[in-house]
Amino acid sequence: MDWITNFLAAAVIAGTPLLFGTLGEIIIEKVGNLNLGVEGLMLLGSVMGFMVGLSTGNPFIALIAAMIAGALGALVYAFLTVTLRANQTVSGLALTIFGTGLSSLLGTKLVGQVTPDSIKAFFKPVAIPLLSKIPVLGTALFNQDPFIYLGYICAIVLGLYLYKTSKGLNVIAVGENPAAADAASININLYKYVHILLGGALCGLGGAYLSLVYVPAWQENVTAGRGWIAVALVIFVGWNPFKALIGAYFFGGLDILGFRISSPFINQYLIAAIPYIATFVVLVVVSMRNSRKNSPPKSLGQSYFREER
């Protein structure tokens, strides 16, 4: 039982950056924009969050800096795809290249630096009374650091926003049929800009978790492909923020499998590749499903031009 509890707790920790990246991509895709730049946004958030955290020692300022960095990267993408109506796939790939290059440039002098003790102390595990006493799941879910609890809150709030509020229903309408939403006096460009920036900020938080808490030190390419897994996870969870919790922690468990399984008869490189193999399998399986409930927004990847209505 202790092994299971420890494994689940480690899966939650490893899945947290995936959760933020997935939530960010969900809210972006819900307004009809396909953003393949999640990896770049997470890297921007990780390097800026770490730089500011290293210089200030303040966890709140570091997280704000990571969110701003992610939002600014998303702003570039939004300007290209919403205002200029550039190809969304190409723009997203360009954002990943830009974020990777800029993080490597800014992180050159950060290699070997570790997270300040004040930030480490702030993100120490905190047990939630009563809930942390639940057998197995209590320790795994409710004896974690505050950043993980923030992930729970973001997923729940985002789900309630999308499915239980009028603004959230407007978001869904923009992604499904922007022409009809426009005819209903919904400001399409405003909704797209706001939610693309919000998604970028969430991706930035995911990157900050890696450099400030998960590692916690700066290393080049700290995301190690997690942004791409987050893009696939959006499809796996059916664009549902509530399901993103389960999907992210499941893939987090796959990510740490190599650290938990040690045997001379098992190829460790193969185990390390399991999350990426699983991503491929998920995409194949999901593409074979014919479920309207779990289908992508109908206008996903399509630029909206009002005069074409």
UniProtKB/TrEMBL annotation:
The keyword Transmembrane helix applies. PANTHER family: ABC TRANSPORTER PERMEASE PROTEIN (PTHR43370:SF2), SUGAR ABC TRANSPORTER INTEGRAL MEMBRANE PROTEIN-RELATED (PTHR43370). It is found in: Cell membrane. The chain crosses the membrane at residues 6-27, 34-54, 60-80, 147-163, 193-215, 227-249, 269-288. GO terms for cellular component: plasma membrane. It is a multi-pass membrane protein. GO terms for molecular function: transmembrane transporter activity. The keyword tRNA processing does not apply. Pfam families: BPD_transp_2. This is ABC transporter permease. Its main location: membrane. Keywords: Cell membrane, Membrane, Transmembrane, Transmembrane helix.
